[in-house]
Amino acid sequence: RKVVALNGTAGSLALNGTYYCYILGFNHNSSVEGNNRIHFQFGFNAASAGVHIAFVDSRYDVRTYSGSYFNMNNANDNTGGWESSRMRNTIIPTFRNCIPSDLRNVLKPVTKYTDNTGGAHDTASYVTATEDSIFLLSEFEVFGGRTHANSTEQNYQTRYSYYSSGNSVIMYKHNSTSSIAVWWLRSVDSSDVGRFCSVSDTGIPDDSEASQSYGFAPAFCV
Question: What does the pLDDT look like over 66-122, one tens digit per residue?
Fold first, then answer.
């Protein structure tokens, strides 16, 4: 695990503390995503024997149509998929600013394939590439299978070693570590115009309305 001192405001959540990210994989899916990269994800709240956490804000599990919270969009709409989502274009940049400058300076971009169209169609051509240095995981990267995501995503993705090794997908709220958090994935629900994929509070693949504020578990590469 790597210790990271976060300081700033991600969305509406003020962060000023020490958190731990963990290695998801070395040179993960390198033929597609890029060589010489270590993939990390937030997080844990301690260096050892800690609790597996996702960040949550004051609107957790509430539909949120305005403001700056951990939802995918300020509407129940997945049009534009991951590429055009409010999560990618608004929330993640604010989180990036919370990361210490020495870590920001060594972030490496990766090429991620995701359904970037949305609109409730399981269409192969909807899966396209984005370049991201901070991102959310996809359904297949966590579970190694497809339940709700576009079925073509998995052709470009690999399950992360951290999860294929048997580590739990259950995360707890960073501010209430006895409470399990639903957490967001970047894949759209390919059968519903208003939902993205998520990890349920029982640790199974789920889908949730895009306007819901849920757990935020960002990943990055160095």
Answer: 999 999 999 999 999 999 999 999 999 999 999 999 999 999 999 999 999 999 999
Helix (H, G, I), strand (E, B) or coil at 190: coil
Whether pTM exceeds 0.90: yes
> Residue 115: exposed, middle, or buried by beta-carbon count in 10 A (0-12, 13-18, 19+)?
buried
Nearest to 119 by CA among 208, 199, 189: 189
CA angle 1, 20, 22 (to 5 degrees): 40
The helix/strand/coil state of 212 is strand
Which residue in this structure is represented by tokens 């470009």? 156
**Whole-angstrom Cα distance, residue 155 to residue 135?**
19
- Would you mind telling me the total number of residues written for the chain in this entry? 222
Which residues neighbour 121 within 8 Å (Cβ) at sequence distance 6 or greater?
A: 190
| String of DSSP letters for 100-129 | -HHHHTT---EEEEEE-S-SS---GGGEEE
Specify the 3-state DSSP secondary structure of 162.
Answer: helix
Q: With contact defined as beta carbons under 8 Å apart, do 111 and 32 qualify?
A: yes
- Residues 9 and 95: their CA atoms lie apart, in Å, by 7
Report the alpha-carbon distance of residue 215 to residue 199 in Å, rounded.
9
